[in-house]
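Let's sit down with a protein and look at its sequence and fold side by side. We need material for that, and I hope you will provide a protein of your own picking. Once you have written the record down, we can walk along the chain together.

***
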Amino acid sequence: MKALVGTWRVADKPQSPLRIRFSLTAAGTVLVEEWLRGDKPHSLTIYHRDGGSLMAVHYCPQGNQPRLLAKPTNGSKTIEWRFLDAADLDPASESYLVALGFDFGQPGQLRRTETYRAVTGDEPSELVLVRDSAPTP
């Protein structure tokens, strides 16, 4: 996942202000995914190991913080995380992240999928990302 470091944009919307920046911290042991709308932070996801597991903690604009656990992939070019638990969550009034996936199958692209759960049901979405040619802010 360290190869993700840098700034990415939505492949089919180069004019969109959305950028996703990946950076390393904690001596390279933690990957930070920061969503930016122009120069304004939107959300944050932190990826780190926990023993033999790979965790993701999502800091949502709604104020909840779901934790997700990666499923074993057996050498696949995908990583999938599933909901484990969450802090500060009111599922009766907030949607929250329950599934997250990265597909590294296409060179130069990252297919990022996510599913939010709301009272009305699950809401899946997908973004195909490419590296941004603009300088990193």
Summary: The CA atoms of residues 78 and 103 lie 4 Å apart.
